[in-house]
Specification:
two-stranded antiparallel sheet; ten-stranded mixed β-sheet; RNaseH-like_sf; 387 residues; Transposase; 2 domains; IS701-like_DDE_dom; single chain; alpha+beta; 15 helices
């Protein structure tokens, strides 16, 4: 069976290469795309132009660098291929779309969007780029990244068109806040008819009224974290900060439920509901079983979902961190050596495609034959022996 399964893995890799082939005008470019994807899948300690070139037997990284920086191909077209591929395998009406930024530490000031800024990923203010991402998580445990946008700080980048041009940022690319980038990505997901039941995000997005209004206009149910000083008017007419309204709740208002399974077992919390004046809205309070801060979530539930389903959606926000970790460790998401705007989107999209391909292959293997998996990932060529 091992040989047959290896043929399945090779066939899947070839099928993905065939999907992205029409994005490239020249056969050499298609070959370079194949090499780059193969390198991102390989168990290399670092995945950049040098290491990938070495892995595929190239004497120097010039063709990998040219593939990302100069070869004419559309990273957005590849993103669309990725979305279609992911939906063929993982589409689920109960899935959750998750928005989250992640940081990429960088040196210098030439890389598009780089500056000293706070990154939750790095846990500090540092010289870095920030990418805004849209992930897709299913109840069955599948997680993939579907979309991405590079954040361009307003004053140091978007308003400095000469600096943008030097970094390859097209003049047509405007300044967008991260919530505006998320709106753009959700619009694309809706246009692509991606099936999902919920949208989830953290406080940066939950306290943005324009994003909430967009989601409500499109009847997208959401669960988004909000800060403790969020002003709320309850169904009974009480008004105040959510933390004060929560403090007035009786103990019987809390119920203990699990919101998913983590590395240490079920993630259980005490939960309470603060009903808003609008029946489509409610606020959910999450209290740790031991010491720790309460967390608050603004929920738009036009379907009048039961509390158990809302809690499931809240618990589904964490898989985006798993996506980032897997993409960085297994698909080289953060290991690029490019500065230009288009090159960033090209590498990131290829990495997202590699992550999705890994998820599909693992699903195909089912039992997860690690020896077979290692054999496939260490191969430097395809089944035909061509690079």
């Amino acid at each position: 069976m091992a040989a047959e399964d290896l043929e399945v893995l090779d066939a899947e890799f070839e099928a993905v290469c065939a999907r992205i082939g029409p994005l490239f005008y020249r056969p050499e470019s298609r070959a370079h795309a194949r090499e780059y994807l193969r390198g991102l899948l390989a168990p290399l300690e670092k995945k950049n132009g040098w290491t990938i070139a070495e892995h595929v037997g190239a004497p120097e990284p010039k063709r990998m660098q040219r593939f990302l920086n100069l070869t004419p191909w559309d990273a957005d077209g590849m993103r669309d291929v990725l979305v279609g591929y992911a939906m063929e395998h993982f589409a689920d009406e109960r899935a959750v779309l998750i928005a989250d930024p992640t940081g990429f530490a960088k040196k210098g000031r030439k890389s598009a969007g780089v500056q000293r800024q706070y990154s939750g990923t790095l846990g500090r203010i540092d010289n870095c780029q920030i990418g805004t991402f849209l992930a897709y998580a299913t109840p069955g445990g599948h997680r993939v990244l579907l979309d991405r946008e590079l954040y361009l700080p307003e004053h140091t980048w978007a308003a400095d068109r000469e600096r943008c041009r030097e970094a390859g940022v097209p003049d047509a690319v405007p300044f967008r806040t991260r919530p505006q980038q998320v709106r753009l990505m959700v619009e694309r997901a809706l246009a692509a008819k991606v099936p999902f039941a919920w949208f989830a995000a953290d406080e940066e997005f939950g306290q943005n009224p324009q994003l909430r209004a967009f989601l409500e206009e499109h009847t997208v149910s959401y669960v988004m974290a909000v800060p403790k000083n969020t002003e709320v008017t309850t169904a009974s007419g009480d008004a105040g900060k959510i933390e004060d309204l929560t403090a007035a709740l009786p103990e019987r208002a809390f119920t203990r439920r699990a919101c998913g399974i983590g590395a240490k077992g079920f993630r259980s919390y005490d939960w309470a509901v603060v009903e808003a004046g609008d029946p489509d809205h409610r606020y959910i309070v999450r209290r740790p079983l031991d010491s720790g801060e309460l967390a608050y979530f603004h929920c738009f539930t036009p379907r009048r979902d039961p509390l158990s389903e809302v809690i499931r959606a809240i618990g589904s926000r964490w898989p985006v961190e798993e996506c980032f970790e897997a993409a960085k460790q297994e698909a080289g998401l953060d290991q690029y050596q490019v500065r230009k705007y288009d090159a960033w989107h090209r590498h990131i999209t290829m990495s997202m495609l590699a992550l999705c391909l890994l998820a599909v292959m693992r699903q195909a293997l089912q039992k997860g034959d690690l020896g077979l998996w290692t054999t496939f990932r260490n191969r430097t060529d395809g089944p035909s022996g061509t690079g």
